[in-house]
What does this fold into?
Amino acid sequence: MPELPEVETVRGGLERWVVGRTIAQVEIMHARAVRRHAAGIAHFTAALSGRTVLAARRRGKFLWLPLDNGDALVAHLGMSGQLLCKPASAPVERHLRARMTFTDGGLELRYVDQRMFGGLSVSAGGAQLPPEIAHIAPDPLDPAFDPEAFVAAVRRRRTAIKRALLDQTLISGIGNIYADEALWRSQLHWSHPTETLSRATLLTLLEHIQQVLTEAIKEGGTSFDALYVNVNGESGYFAVSLNVYGREGLPCRRCATPITREAFANRSSFSCPTCQPRPR
It folds into this structure.
Protein backbone atom coordinates (compact mmCIF):
# COMPACT_ATOMS: atom_id res chain seq x y z
CA MET A 1 0.00 0.00 0.00
CA PRO A 2 1.33 3.48 -0.78
CA GLU A 3 2.61 5.20 2.34
CA LEU A 4 3.15 8.87 3.10
CA PRO A 5 6.06 9.49 0.68
CA GLU A 6 4.22 7.90 -2.23
CA VAL A 7 1.00 9.79 -1.48
CA GLU A 8 2.89 13.07 -1.00
CA THR A 9 4.56 12.54 -4.38
CA VAL A 10 1.15 12.15 -6.00
CA ARG A 11 -0.16 15.21 -4.11
CA GLY A 12 2.70 17.30 -5.48
CA GLY A 13 1.85 16.18 -9.00
CA LEU A 14 -1.81 17.08 -8.53
CA GLU A 15 -0.80 20.47 -7.18
CA ARG A 16 1.20 21.09 -10.32
CA TRP A 17 -1.16 19.73 -12.97
CA VAL A 18 -4.71 19.98 -11.57
CA VAL A 19 -4.98 22.89 -9.11
CA GLY A 20 -6.62 25.98 -10.59
CA ARG A 21 -8.47 24.05 -13.28
CA THR A 22 -12.23 23.62 -13.68
CA ILE A 23 -13.73 20.15 -14.10
CA ALA A 24 -15.76 19.83 -17.30
CA GLN A 25 -16.94 16.22 -17.22
CA VAL A 26 -16.62 13.15 -14.98
CA GLU A 27 -16.86 9.61 -16.34
CA ILE A 28 -17.10 6.52 -14.09
CA MET A 29 -16.10 3.21 -15.68
CA HIS A 30 -16.62 1.03 -12.59
CA ALA A 31 -19.12 1.67 -9.79
CA ARG A 32 -16.76 0.27 -7.18
CA ALA A 33 -14.44 3.26 -7.73
CA VAL A 34 -16.99 5.52 -6.01
CA ARG A 35 -18.52 3.04 -3.58
CA ARG A 36 -17.52 5.34 -0.68
CA HIS A 37 -19.80 8.03 -2.12
CA ALA A 38 -23.08 6.91 -0.57
CA ALA A 39 -25.25 9.18 -2.76
CA GLY A 40 -24.26 7.24 -5.88
CA ILE A 41 -22.59 7.80 -9.24
CA ALA A 42 -24.98 10.41 -10.62
CA HIS A 43 -24.62 12.57 -7.53
CA PHE A 44 -20.82 12.15 -7.58
CA THR A 45 -20.48 13.31 -11.17
CA ALA A 46 -22.92 16.21 -10.70
CA ALA A 47 -21.12 17.35 -7.54
CA LEU A 48 -17.82 17.70 -9.45
CA SER A 49 -18.93 19.05 -12.83
CA GLY A 50 -18.21 22.77 -13.13
CA ARG A 51 -16.19 22.92 -9.91
CA THR A 52 -12.71 24.47 -9.76
CA VAL A 53 -9.92 22.71 -7.86
CA LEU A 54 -8.33 25.10 -5.34
CA ALA A 55 -5.58 22.99 -3.76
CA ALA A 56 -4.16 19.49 -3.28
CA ARG A 57 -3.89 18.30 0.33
CA ARG A 58 -3.01 15.15 2.22
CA ARG A 59 -3.44 13.62 5.62
CA GLY A 60 -1.54 10.40 6.09
CA LYS A 61 -2.45 8.19 3.14
CA PHE A 62 -5.54 10.19 2.10
CA LEU A 63 -5.62 12.89 -0.57
CA TRP A 64 -8.24 15.54 -1.07
CA LEU A 65 -8.80 18.34 -3.57
CA PRO A 66 -10.68 21.32 -2.05
CA LEU A 67 -13.26 22.72 -4.48
CA ASP A 68 -14.52 26.27 -4.99
CA ASN A 69 -17.88 25.55 -3.31
CA GLY A 70 -16.37 24.28 -0.04
CA ASP A 71 -16.66 20.59 -0.89
CA ALA A 72 -13.72 18.27 -1.57
CA LEU A 73 -12.85 15.36 -3.82
CA VAL A 74 -11.37 12.70 -1.54
CA ALA A 75 -9.12 9.88 -2.78
CA HIS A 76 -7.57 6.86 -1.14
CA LEU A 77 -5.20 4.84 -3.32
CA GLY A 78 -5.65 1.56 -1.43
CA MET A 79 -3.23 -1.15 -2.56
CA SER A 80 -2.93 -0.27 -6.24
CA GLY A 81 -4.71 3.01 -6.96
CA GLN A 82 -3.11 5.55 -9.30
CA LEU A 83 -4.04 9.14 -10.09
CA LEU A 84 -2.56 9.95 -13.49
CA CYS A 85 -2.50 13.17 -15.50
CA LYS A 86 -2.60 12.15 -19.16
CA PRO A 87 -3.41 13.71 -22.54
CA ALA A 88 -6.84 12.76 -23.84
CA SER A 89 -5.08 11.04 -26.74
CA ALA A 90 -3.12 8.69 -24.43
CA PRO A 91 -4.13 5.00 -24.61
CA VAL A 92 -6.78 3.95 -22.11
CA GLU A 93 -5.29 2.00 -19.20
CA ARG A 94 -6.53 -1.54 -18.68
CA HIS A 95 -7.75 -0.78 -15.16
CA LEU A 96 -9.09 2.73 -15.77
CA ARG A 97 -11.98 3.26 -13.32
CA ALA A 98 -12.76 6.98 -13.63
CA ARG A 99 -11.58 10.06 -15.46
CA MET A 100 -12.16 13.78 -15.43
CA THR A 101 -11.71 16.27 -18.21
CA PHE A 102 -11.20 20.00 -17.69
CA THR A 103 -12.57 23.09 -19.40
CA ASP A 104 -9.11 24.14 -20.61
CA GLY A 105 -8.81 20.98 -22.71
CA GLY A 106 -5.46 20.06 -21.16
CA LEU A 107 -4.35 16.90 -19.35
CA GLU A 108 -7.19 14.80 -17.96
CA LEU A 109 -7.15 13.20 -14.53
CA ARG A 110 -7.46 9.41 -14.53
CA TYR A 111 -8.09 7.07 -11.62
CA VAL A 112 -6.61 3.63 -12.33
CA ASP A 113 -6.91 0.79 -9.82
CA GLN A 114 -6.19 -2.88 -10.46
CA ARG A 115 -7.23 -4.34 -7.10
CA MET A 116 -10.01 -1.84 -6.33
CA PHE A 117 -9.30 -1.38 -2.62
CA GLY A 118 -9.08 2.40 -3.05
CA GLY A 119 -11.73 4.82 -4.18
CA LEU A 120 -13.07 8.33 -4.70
CA SER A 121 -15.81 10.31 -2.97
CA VAL A 122 -17.05 13.87 -2.59
CA SER A 123 -17.05 15.27 0.93
CA ALA A 124 -19.71 17.92 1.48
CA GLY A 125 -18.10 20.90 3.21
CA GLY A 126 -14.81 19.01 3.43
CA ALA A 127 -12.48 21.52 1.78
CA GLN A 128 -10.54 22.32 4.96
CA LEU A 129 -10.53 18.76 6.35
CA PRO A 130 -13.03 16.13 5.20
CA PRO A 131 -14.94 14.89 8.27
CA GLU A 132 -14.60 11.34 6.95
CA ILE A 133 -10.86 11.42 7.72
CA ALA A 134 -10.85 13.74 10.75
CA HIS A 135 -10.18 10.76 13.04
CA ILE A 136 -6.81 10.20 11.39
CA ALA A 137 -3.90 11.72 13.29
CA PRO A 138 -1.61 14.30 11.69
CA ASP A 139 1.47 12.78 10.12
CA PRO A 140 4.99 13.43 11.49
CA LEU A 141 5.73 16.00 8.75
CA ASP A 142 2.53 17.98 9.39
CA PRO A 143 3.06 21.29 11.27
CA ALA A 144 0.06 20.28 13.40
CA PHE A 145 1.83 17.14 14.63
CA ASP A 146 2.59 17.26 18.38
CA PRO A 147 5.68 15.16 19.25
CA GLU A 148 5.11 15.29 23.00
CA ALA A 149 1.48 14.20 22.67
CA PHE A 150 2.58 11.34 20.42
CA VAL A 151 5.23 10.20 22.93
CA ALA A 152 2.76 10.32 25.82
CA ALA A 153 0.14 8.38 23.86
CA VAL A 154 2.62 5.69 22.83
CA ARG A 155 3.88 5.23 26.38
CA ARG A 156 0.30 4.72 27.59
CA ARG A 157 -0.21 1.88 25.14
CA ARG A 158 0.71 -1.70 25.94
CA THR A 159 1.63 -3.03 22.56
CA ALA A 160 4.61 -3.56 20.27
CA ILE A 161 6.21 -0.37 18.98
CA LYS A 162 5.61 -1.28 15.35
CA ARG A 163 1.89 -1.79 15.99
CA ALA A 164 1.82 1.70 17.50
CA LEU A 165 3.56 3.18 14.44
CA LEU A 166 0.97 1.61 12.14
CA ASP A 167 -1.96 2.93 14.21
CA GLN A 168 -3.28 5.80 12.07
CA THR A 169 -5.09 7.32 15.07
CA LEU A 170 -1.71 7.85 16.78
CA ILE A 171 0.45 8.87 13.83
CA SER A 172 -0.55 8.70 10.19
CA GLY A 173 1.19 7.92 6.93
CA ILE A 174 3.55 5.21 8.19
CA GLY A 175 3.23 1.71 6.79
CA ASN A 176 5.30 -1.45 6.82
CA ILE A 177 8.23 -0.15 4.78
CA TYR A 178 8.98 3.06 6.62
CA ALA A 179 8.25 1.60 10.05
CA ASP A 180 10.94 -1.03 9.46
CA GLU A 181 13.37 1.56 8.12
CA ALA A 182 12.90 3.96 11.06
CA LEU A 183 13.17 1.15 13.62
CA TRP A 184 16.46 0.03 12.04
CA ARG A 185 17.85 3.55 12.26
CA SER A 186 16.81 3.66 15.93
CA GLN A 187 18.17 0.17 16.62
CA LEU A 188 14.82 -0.98 18.01
CA HIS A 189 13.21 -4.37 17.40
CA TRP A 190 9.66 -4.14 16.10
CA SER A 191 8.27 -6.07 19.10
CA HIS A 192 9.71 -3.75 21.77
CA PRO A 193 6.94 -2.98 24.33
CA THR A 194 5.82 0.63 24.08
CA GLU A 195 5.42 1.09 27.83
CA THR A 196 9.13 0.37 28.39
CA LEU A 197 10.41 2.97 25.93
CA SER A 198 11.72 6.22 27.38
CA ARG A 199 10.71 9.67 26.20
CA ALA A 200 14.21 10.22 24.80
CA THR A 201 14.10 6.94 22.85
CA LEU A 202 10.73 7.76 21.33
CA LEU A 203 11.79 11.27 20.37
CA THR A 204 14.86 9.82 18.66
CA LEU A 205 12.65 7.30 16.85
CA LEU A 206 10.41 10.17 15.75
CA GLU A 207 13.43 12.03 14.35
CA HIS A 208 14.38 8.95 12.36
CA ILE A 209 10.81 8.59 11.09
CA GLN A 210 10.86 12.18 9.87
CA GLN A 211 14.27 11.68 8.26
CA VAL A 212 13.35 8.53 6.36
CA LEU A 213 10.04 9.98 5.16
CA THR A 214 11.72 13.18 3.97
CA GLU A 215 14.44 11.25 2.14
CA ALA A 216 11.86 8.99 0.50
CA ILE A 217 9.82 11.97 -0.70
CA LYS A 218 12.93 13.42 -2.36
CA GLU A 219 13.30 10.14 -4.28
CA GLY A 220 9.65 10.03 -5.31
CA GLY A 221 8.76 7.23 -2.90
CA THR A 222 9.39 3.49 -3.11
CA SER A 223 8.34 1.44 -6.15
CA PHE A 224 8.67 -2.36 -6.07
CA ASP A 225 6.43 -2.88 -9.10
CA ALA A 226 4.37 -0.95 -11.64
CA LEU A 227 1.44 -0.40 -9.26
CA TYR A 228 2.95 2.66 -7.59
CA VAL A 229 3.78 5.57 -9.90
CA ASN A 230 3.50 9.34 -9.75
CA VAL A 231 0.94 11.32 -11.78
CA ASN A 232 3.18 11.10 -14.85
CA GLY A 233 3.43 7.32 -14.59
CA GLU A 234 7.02 7.36 -13.29
CA SER A 235 8.38 5.09 -10.53
CA GLY A 236 9.98 6.24 -7.29
CA TYR A 237 13.61 5.37 -6.55
CA PHE A 238 13.87 5.11 -2.76
CA ALA A 239 13.95 1.29 -2.96
CA VAL A 240 17.69 1.44 -3.66
CA SER A 241 18.19 3.27 -0.34
CA LEU A 242 16.31 0.81 1.86
CA ASN A 243 18.41 -0.58 4.69
CA VAL A 244 16.28 -3.51 5.86
CA TYR A 245 12.90 -3.77 4.15
CA GLY A 246 12.95 -6.50 1.51
CA ARG A 247 16.63 -7.30 2.20
CA GLU A 248 16.30 -10.71 3.89
CA GLY A 249 19.65 -12.52 3.92
CA LEU A 250 21.62 -9.49 2.74
CA PRO A 251 24.23 -7.91 5.05
CA CYS A 252 23.18 -5.15 7.40
CA ARG A 253 24.64 -1.87 6.14
CA ARG A 254 25.75 -1.08 9.70
CA CYS A 255 27.21 -4.34 11.05
CA ALA A 256 27.10 -6.84 8.11
CA THR A 257 24.85 -9.34 9.96
CA PRO A 258 22.33 -10.91 7.54
CA ILE A 259 18.93 -9.22 7.68
CA THR A 260 16.11 -11.44 8.93
CA ARG A 261 12.41 -11.51 8.11
CA GLU A 262 9.75 -12.32 10.73
CA ALA A 263 6.00 -12.72 10.42
CA PHE A 264 4.07 -9.74 11.72
CA ALA A 265 0.27 -9.22 11.54
CA ASN A 266 -0.13 -10.91 8.14
CA ARG A 267 2.89 -8.96 6.93
CA SER A 268 6.65 -9.30 7.23
CA SER A 269 9.03 -7.35 9.44
CA PHE A 270 12.67 -6.97 8.44
CA SER A 271 15.39 -6.22 10.97
CA CYS A 272 19.01 -6.82 11.91
CA PRO A 273 19.31 -9.39 14.74
CA THR A 274 22.53 -7.75 15.97
CA CYS A 275 21.60 -4.06 15.74
CA GLN A 276 17.98 -4.66 16.74
CA PRO A 277 17.96 -7.48 19.31
CA ARG A 278 14.59 -8.83 20.33
CA PRO A 279 13.67 -7.55 23.83
CA ARG A 280 13.89 -10.10 26.64
